From TrEMBL, chain A:
InterPro entries: PaaB, PaaB_sf. Pfam families: PaaB (PF06243). This is 1,2-phenylacetyl-CoA epoxidase subunit B. The gene is paaB.
Automatic annotation (TrEMBL), chain B:
Keywords: Oxidoreductase. Its EC number is 1.14.13.149. It comes from the Bacteria. It comes from Winogradskyella alexanderae. This is 1,2-phenylacetyl-CoA epoxidase subunit A. The gene is paaA. GO terms for molecular function: phenylacetyl-CoA 1,2-epoxidase activity.
UniProtKB/TrEMBL annotation, chain C:
The keyword Oxidoreductase applies. PANTHER family: 1,2-PHENYLACETYL-COA EPOXIDASE, SUBUNIT C, PHENYLACETIC ACID DEGRADATION PROTEIN PAA. This is Phenylacetate-CoA oxygenase subunit PaaC. Its EC number is 1.14.13.149.
Amino acid sequence: MSKDWPLWEVFVRSKNGLEHRHFGSLHAADAEMALENARDVYTRRNEGVSIWVVESKHITASNPEHNAELFEPAQDKVYRHPTFYDIPDEIKHM
Amino acid sequence: MSEDQIKNLEAQFEARIARDEKIEPKDWMPEKYRQTHIRQISQHAHSEIVGMLPEGNWITRAPSLRRKVALLAKVQDEAGHGLYLYSACETLGVSREELYDQLHTGKAKYSSIFNYPTITWADIGAIGWLVDGAAIINQVPLCNTSFGPYARAMIRVCKEESFHQRQGYEIMMTLANGTPEQKEMAQDALNRWWWPSLMMFGPTDAESVHTAQSMKWKLKRKTNDELRQQFVDQTVPQAELIGLTIPDDDLKWNDKRKSYDFGPIDWDEFWQVVKGHGPMNKERMNARVSAWENGEWVRDAAVAYADKQKEYKSKQAV
Amino acid sequence: MEKKDLYNYILGIADNPLILGQRLGELCGHGPSLETDIACTNIALDLFGQTRSYFQYAAKIKGENATEDSIAFLRTEREYTNVLLVEQPNTDFAFTITRQFLFDVYHYLFLEQLQKSKDVNLSAIAHKAIKEVSYHQRFSSDWIKRLGDGTDESKKRMQNAVNDLWRYTDELFHTTESDEAMIAEGIGVDVKKLKNIYYSRINKILEDARLEIPESKWFQKGGKHGLHTEYMGYILSEMQYMQRTYPNMTW
């Protein structure tokens, strides 16, 4: 038969207060196994306090070929950034 | 796409790498870039998992509990490194099973050093000190390579690798400071592992086919000979410090170059092992293939169980 | 309280993780998948870590320059008091995981009680170890279900392993003289009392895994008195090789 275990993406929160970050991937037959494997593979050195796993096929990724239309329009929206606005020097924090 | 369009894309691609931009899996890339990366990353992954075997050979015989847990943890790390690297390779659209298949059928290469046998405990020290030492020199520049997933995997690998070399050197140091029998064991291991370690950096620059292209793609930052020299210069004082002798009559400090000169490498031996006729090539491959074949029913059962559970859950939902 | 009884009692606990860790260590690099390989090695590392804690404590009690290593490596076969279950070989992954499961469930119940020991050292070791073993138990139980209820072949292999290893389960609940002495002191765990809950937990998982619970009432024993199966000599030959070949050296 020989069916391959699907690929999973692993996200680990390294400590409370931080977001889950993508750590890598692994193979597992089911979600429980993916969690257990993630724990053994990616938190051997105390790297995490919480793990998410998601089967890779469920991730929809943007296409780099569309990067121009997706991301470049945000480049000139300088008014979204605080430095766009002039305030008197006397006001130190705003 | 027309030929001109491809040329144009390639030029843009090379320019991105030259600007130190990272390439990510879904980005357009020249086919040769993809193939070269699949080859190098998988070769690297294979080396990690084949590398588990010579060291794994001593887990049950480690001389103390402290040494046993350190060795177990180290060999386990290598499995982890293999896994990170296979994952990086998979982002290029090739499955781990395909990669295994290439390894098992002899199509893919792995580091030849693992085709030498570990016959005494001191070999475990020598591997950690020399082989991991050489590997680190090869690997550190890769943390900055152009392909994002490979660079990220290497950062993780290098972080974890640093205990390996210290572990090995500590074993050698303990032996060298031990009884005459122990010291002899350490020297014997150094004698056997020294030259194969130098060969780990690959053929001389004159003979190396991939270097120029690899430099451009930041798969390499220095040439084989430069890295080899770095290894020699770094390792000779470490051997002296613990009173072991590098097995090379031609080895001497060159004050002009501020480096050690060393004797000629036996390239015939190198090619013999690369071509599959080293002392342990067959045994290493047999071990990998039988682990994979013996595990097939386990992997299949896990998939079958997962399918049943899914079916069960969807029935429950109705 | 007899110092000897406490010492023997600790060895009786610690020889189990030692020998089971040794068996798991054989598999490192040969597992059915990279992920499983890493997981089994993690369990082995936990077990050796526990072993070291127990032996370091035992060495203090023994005195006379005893160390964790002299205790681990320099006894004769008759002086090892692990149960027969843990020395059984890695015939295939079904045997490995069944052996693990049959031990883990016991190990967890045992440590739960050992946490309450009047001996603060043992209680502290148990407190730390139980978190590890709780995970081992989950890991091996999950695999029992996957393989028991996986394919026809996996079911057959699992049933075979369960049937074979079943005869070594009863011994887990035997006690030696030292055990009884320690139980009387409030230091040791009365394993006899764990038997019912053990089998009810085991049976539940086996049922979930659609495996048959063996009916055999014929059990093997001896490990706790240093009478081992023929496998033990080979385990020790490997494990003790360096210490025996090169005595009195530092590694």
